Amino acid sequence: MDVYEAVASRRAVRGFKDEPVSRELLERVLSAAAWAPSGSNIQPWNTYVMTGAPLAELKTDAVERVAHGDPWDERQYEMYPPVLKSPYAERRSAFGKERYSALGIAREDWEARQRAAIANWNCFGAPAALFCYIDRDLGLPQWADVGMYLQTVMLLLRAEGLHSCTQMAWSQVRESVADALSPPDGLILFCGMSIGYEDPTVNYPRTGRAPLAETVTFVGD
């Protein structure tokens, strides 16, 4: 699979087979992803990978918390600005409409939306999950470095025939994740990532992208 195919076929998959992902494959992907760029090569990502019984236990704990209506853990970063201006607000709204319409869930059916959201904390059935932390003392450029690292991981997973879904939703149950992983003090959980083989029986639309002219400006010949 060349890089163009990997980019074009990467998407947030929300339905995985329970087929295991080997430790050897995950090590190969993450060893290669270590070459992702970062300012002054500080490599600000701190990555944990869970599979098997430890992941199953975390899934159960997180799903039960959410299902029982326990309070969210306070996020350690702002996921979206309080007021999302145009055109970003419209893009976010369109995504939500497409996602829940595909599931047959009406906009006003809050309970159904919550049930659908709970699948996040079951990793959509994926047998492997990655949790990415960043040091709280680092700045915005280092957060951008973490994003480039995660994109590199996702493209390498595609090269191996795997799919993924990054999930900031895990930051809402970060204390449960910390109980399972015991990360050092000073680290912030940015996101989780479900990893596995796509279940083709789970149907959902692929979200579109803005036209090139809307996001790119060429200057020169």
Structural account:
- This protein has a four-stranded antiparallel β-sheet.
- α1 crosses α6 (140-159) and α2 (23-33) crosses α6 (140-159).
- It has helices at 3-9, 23-33, 52-67, 88-102, 110-118, 140-159, 174-181, 212-215, and strands at 46-51, 128-135, 163-167, 187-196.
- The longest helix has 20 residues, at 140-159.
- It is an alpha+beta fold and 221 residues long.
- The mean pLDDT is 90.
- Helices cover 41% and strands 13% of the residues.
- It contains eight helices and four strands.
- The chain is globular and about 55 Å long.
Oligomerization status of the protein chains: single chain
Inertia-based shape: globular
Encode the helix/strand succession as letters: HHEHHHEHEHEH
Whole-number radius of gyration? 18 Å
Proportion of helical residues = 40-55%
Q: Using DSSP, what is the number of strands?
A: 4
Strand content: 5-15%
Major β-sheet profile: 4 strands, antiparallel
Distance between the termini: 32 Å
